[in-house]
Amino acid sequence: MDNNRKTAYQTLIDVESKKAYSNIALNHKIAVNKPGNPAFVRELTYGVLERKITLDYFIDQLLSEGIDSLRMPEITILRMGVYQLGYMDSVPEYAAINECVELAKKYCKGRAGLINGVLREYQNKKIYMTLPARDEDEIRHLSIKYSYAPWIIELWLNYYDKPFVEKLLAAGNETPPMTVRANWLKIRKDDLKKVLKERGFEAEDGKLCQNALNVKGSKLLDSDLYKYGLFTPQDESSMLVSEKIGVKQGDLVMDVCAAPGGKTTAIAERMNNTGKIIASDIYRRKLDIVDKEAKRLGITNIETRSWDATRVDSTMVKRADRVLVDAPCSGLGVIRRKPEIKYKEESDELMLLPKKQEAILSASASYVKPGGTLVYSTCTINPQENEMVIDEFLKRNRDFEKVDRILLLPNVNGTDGFFICVMKRDELME
Fold first, then answer.
1. Contact 303, 312 (CB under 8 A)
2. Average pLDDT over residues 48-59
3. What is the Rg, in whole angstroms, of the alpha carbon atoms belonging to the chain?
4. Can you tell me the distance from the alpha carbon of 48 to that of 52, in angstroms, rounded to the nearest whole number?
5. Chosen CATH of 236-425 out of 3.30.70.3460, 3.20.20.80, 3.40.50.1220, 3.40.50.150
6. CATH 1.10.940.10 occupies which residues in the chain?
């Protein structure tokens, strides 16, 4: 059995059955199984996740009793096979089918014949198989074509025109670049760029942020450059938050939803390791990640603490120069990196997010000193969690004014989808 496909299969099963995050599950399986071609494993795994609804639509048509008659191991292997046959031109068709049959012999005994038959039928019929007609049901057409839960498409169509939404859907299925943030405490960006090129990597300046590099090459995070803390993987949309907060050396900064710490450490680097950052999160285990990253990067001005961001800490009222609220959100802006987000159900929990975000923002605003800065950010493309939250906050808090508001979109900016709003507190406030 091919170890590359076995690794992809095991990752996909973990994502489906254990609701594991795809990036974490994939990295774990690659570390354990040590496949010979990790790039192939990533392409196959993310490809199946990105196209799940589309793949299921085709598979369903090839089964007399429909896809609902199958168990998850069989569905997963068929998805892998159909994706290789339909979307991976570099994979020989015989290899795609034969290796899926081998997987079936191990993981769904007695069903190898079914797997073989369905994949061979798809091989013969794929050029004739079509999507449902757009003019009959546009939401269903787009859902199956781009593989998104229908409610997400409906949400975006409420705010953007149809051509824009289709470009946004397509951008979510693209592979994002590897972008890194140079650690100014240890190396200048130009020097890091030079060293990366000497190691055989391609490295080009980012478009939005001063210390961003887009890097191409394998095993970047296995290098000693990473272990020594010379850089951190981070999308430019996320990096931009640490620029917009406008920290100065010696500031007191509060990051109220800090884990896993990408923005926290970026702010610390911009402060040149001076002043103090109080990094909070409700879960202590998540803060351990922040502590570990700070140690790798040589950062000593971060103090982590467990705290519920919806509650006001009376000891910190009006003390902070800068406060960052990187609020928990639906994550619709990072679908390129976590395609499983596309299949979230429109649950009560999601519907209640704006209320939670408003509560966190309201509590956090009390920490900002007169003349201080408050930044609200999310990694979603949902006006209900972004602009509407800010509008409601400013209506209730007249001592704050909006300084800047930015919405980054993958189809426009080539970054993750991100919302950033910078606000300033009145200096004359008593």
1. no
2. 96
3. 24
4. 6
5. 3.40.50.150
6. 3-128
> Which pLDDT score is estimated for 349?
81
The pTM of this model reads 0.92
| Interatomic CA distance for residues 194 and 216, integer angstroms | 14
Average of per-residue pLDDT values in the chain:
95
Return residue ranges of the chain for CATH 3.40.50.150. 236-425
Q: Please answer whether residues 321 and 373 qualify as being in contact, where contact means their C-beta atoms are separated by less than 8 angstroms.
A: yes
The model's pLDDT over 90-101, given as tens digits with 9 standing for 90+, comes to 999 999 999 999
* 213 band by pLDDT with thresholds 50, 70 and 90: very high
Any idea which residues carry the catalytic annotation?
Answer: 379
Q: Does domain 3-128 have CATH number 2.60.130.10?
A: no
Whether 51 shows a pLDDT value over 60: the answer reads yes
CATH 3.30.420.10 fits 178-233, yes or no: no
Cβ count within 10 A of residue 249 = 10
3-class SS at 397?
A: coil
What pLDDT is attached to residue 218?
87
State both tokens at 238: 């996320």
